[in-house]
Amino acid sequence: MLALLHTSPVHIPVYDALRDEDHQSLELRHFVDESLLARARAEGPEAVADDVRTAVERAVADGARAVLVTCSTLGGVAEEATDGIGVPVLRGDRPMAAAAVAAGSRIVVLGTVDSTFGPTASLIEEEARRAGRPVDVRTALVAGAWARFESGDLEGYARLVAATADEVTDADAIVLAQPSMAPARQLTTTPIPVLSSPRQGLAAGATAAGPPG
User: Fold this and answer.
1) Contact, 166 vs 186, CB < 8 A?
2) With 207 labelled, which of 32, 42, 87, 166 sits at a CA distance of 20 to 30 A?
3) What is the Cα–Cα distance from 208 to 29, expressed in whole angstroms?
């Protein structure tokens, strides 16, 4: 069983749909704690490190053979806080970061909350060092998008993200930093590759969880 730790319930159907498409035999169990992101935004990700570890321990006690942390703001602290916990704990955006580095050195990170920029940029730079590639990471906040998300206007949210992506120039890859931004990929018209985390992250989680049995 693969456990997924989310900071919004809107992610559940996204990952369930990807499981149905690509990993039909994979059992998913979702754990949602919206307060983790709210506190991380207000106090910094380190402030919720203990709570993230507790959430992961709960998933492991529930039978998880691996845990995928889907929130980009919490990914780094989740890897650090769960060292030695006994099962793989993956940040869902690491495969996306590696793909961005492979695409080229000029990477633009789009986000709808500013708390995601530090962790995402650091992750991309880490993957660049691992690959031995130079990288120039720029960030851009999608103005007004988070208010749309919080109000439940997910279509308007995606359209704002897509419009911002289409304005990007002089880049080898555009990274959509949060999994909630993934639907915007289908709305973009830019020739620049637009990368999102859910599909690749779930694939990595499925591999870490191992075959069913």
Assistant:
1) no
2) 32
3) 15
